Amino acid sequence: MASNPTTNPQYRDYDKIYLLGDSITERSFDQTRGFGSGAQLLHSYARRLDVLNRGFSGYNTAHALRILPEIIPSPDVYKIKLLVVFYGANDAVLPDQPQHVALDEYKQNLKKIIHHPLIQAHQPNIILIVPPPISEYATQESDALKGIKVVQRIAENTKLYADGALEVANELKIPTVNLWAEFMAFAGWNGDLSAPLPGSKKIARDTKLEELFCDGLHFNPAGYEILYRCLMKLIENQFPELLPESLPMVHPHFSIAPR
């Protein structure tokens, strides 16, 4: 537990779980629709670790690399115990869109984020979340309501970026939440890669998959529940010492607290 020597020498900051990502991460603390995975993590780790929301709407991996020096402090301030990296939804927009990051660059950017000296200084445990599928029907309808007439995302391209994230995780041996596969399993996909993917407009609308989204891209509570469940299961399997019940309270229970 880091102290802050610039202020009160008795001050003790909490170590952190850092959620690094785009709007899907940013919205995970919004409970106006119901369950949010970030808000639930904050509740689960109360008094043990702080959970910081560093999700930025619209950002891709190139944006992330530019802002890392502004959002990752020295470990003298506090320690990042767990870093959750979740990018790809914006990188995977079609090449004529401003948020697009080419697939090879996306994979290299993920590696640069994970290996960044500011992050490595914390020696954190790291989890990579694979970007989820989309519903072309719902995303295009949502875009049309905003006056956007061009197609920004297609299901097949999103799959390429999900595969790219898996390649990086396998190469770097980083534990992974394969959210693409989890969402597809929820939709009942049979795994046939020779046929159009669920969510594609080449086939009928997949209403089961759309239960996970509010607009074909961002999550409904059901989508965030899958994310939270998978994340906690991975922590249990890979980092059991970081489960909430394995961590001491930073300040003790009132029954033994000093008075």
TrEMBL record:
Residues 19-226 form the SGNH hydrolase-type esterase domain. Signal peptide: none annotated. The keyword Hydrolase applies. InterPro entries: Iah1-like, SGNH_hydro, SGNH_hydro_sf. PANTHER family: ISOAMYL ACETATE-HYDROLYZING ESTERASE 1, ISOAMYL ACETATE-HYDROLYZING ESTERASE 1 HOMOLOG. It comes from Ascobolus immersus RN42. Gene3D superfamilies: SGNH hydrolase (3.40.50.1110). This is GDSL Lipase/Acylhydrolase family protein. It holds the Pfam family Lipase_GDSL_2. The lineage of its organism: Eukaryota, Fungi, Dikarya, Ascomycota, Pezizomycotina. Coiled coil: none annotated. It comes from the Eukaryota. Keywords: Hydrolase. GO terms for molecular function: hydrolase activity.
